[in-house]
């Protein structure tokens, strides 16, 4: 089935930023969206906006570091709608810092969210997709999975892992499942909440103010991948500001 109308799409990290933009856009185009995020106080208003506009949305508190939460989101979609067409593994952490800062807890947060969160999504949705005979994974990586800069070693490593896992999944998926990687560049989101190193934060703030693009640009890339015919798999889309190095 091509197009977006009536597809059931689950999205993690859907309360703000790219996930929120994707939820709003896909619902506007006729998808039934099932939204997960840790902060339900931010997630509930997204659902309300969609419903007020005439769209269809459900939500559940989802911490992608918890395997049972991700499984529950997929289960909610299937129980309510009888299927799951697309899982967007979007939730992520950008707790960047120089390695010398030794923020080991942040390293664990990055691994638990950015790598294990994606794997938990795959573990939850892959059996469903196999049983259905169709399905589409969209995994959010980053331009940092292509180009490493100081202060992002661990973050970039997790996003390299997302690309590697996604390519392995694509090769194993066979002819009926699709796998897409979306690699955003500098985007106007709340990612600075995770940056604790003051020098790195100041650098990011300057670049963000000067370069960052709207999260809707990333959402449109996701929609493009979803709306392709079933025999077309968009493997990866890099979306970054024109002026970004």
TrEMBL record:
<dbReference type="Pfam" id="PF00106">
    <property type="entry name" value="adh_short"/>
</dbReference>
<keyword id="KW-0560">Oxidoreductase</keyword>
<feature type="domain" description="Ketoreductase">
    <location>
        <begin position="7"/>
        <end position="189"/>
    </location>
</feature>
<dbReference type="GO" id="GO:0016616">
    <property type="term" value="F:oxidoreductase activity, acting on the CH-OH group of donors, NAD or NADP as acceptor"/>
</dbReference>
<dbReference type="InterPro" id="IPR002347">
    <property type="entry name" value="SDR_fam"/>
</dbReference>
<dbReference type="InterPro" id="IPR036291">
    <property type="entry name" value="NAD(P)-bd_dom_sf"/>
</dbReference>
<dbReference type="InterPro" id="IPR020904">
    <property type="entry name" value="Sc_DH/Rdtase_CS"/>
</dbReference>
<comment type="similarity">
    <text>Belongs to the short-chain dehydrogenases/reductases (SDR) family.</text>
</comment>
<protein>
    <submittedName>
        <fullName>SDR family oxidoreductase</fullName>
    </submittedName>
</protein>
<dbReference type="InterPro" id="IPR057326">
    <property type="entry name" value="KR_dom"/>
</dbReference>
């Amino acid at each position: 089935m091509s197009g977006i109308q009536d597809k059931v799409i689950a999205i993690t990290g859907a309360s703000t930023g790219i996930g929120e933009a994707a939820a709003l856009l896909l619902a506007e185009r006729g998808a039934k969206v099932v939204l997960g995020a840790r902060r339900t106080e931010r997630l509930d208003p997204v659902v309300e906006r969609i419903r007020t506009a005439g769209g269809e949305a459900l939500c559940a508190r989802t911490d992608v570091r918890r395997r049972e939460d991700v499984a529950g989101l997929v289960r909610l979609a299937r129980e309510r709608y009888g299927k799951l067409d697309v899982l967007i593994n979007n939730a992520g952490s950008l707790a960047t810092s120089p390695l010398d800062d030794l923020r080991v807890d942040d390293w664990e947060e990055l691994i638990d969210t950015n790598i294990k969160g994606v794997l938990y999504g795959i573990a939850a949705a892959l059996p469903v997709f196999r049983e259905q005979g169709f399905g589409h994974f969209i995994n959010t990586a980053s331009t940092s999975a292509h180009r490493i800069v100081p202060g992002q070693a661990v973050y970039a490593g997790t996003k390299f892992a997302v690309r590697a896992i996604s390519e392995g999944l694509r090769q194993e998926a066979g002819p009926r499942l699709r796998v897409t990687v979306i690699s955003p560049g500098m985007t106007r989101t709340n990612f600075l909440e995770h940056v604790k190193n003051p020098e790195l934060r100041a650098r990011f703030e300057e670049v963000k103010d000067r370069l960052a693009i709207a999260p809707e640009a990333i959402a449109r890339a996701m929609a493009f991948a979803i709306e392709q015919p079933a025999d077309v798999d968009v493997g990866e889309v890099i979306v970054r500001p024109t002026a970004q190095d």
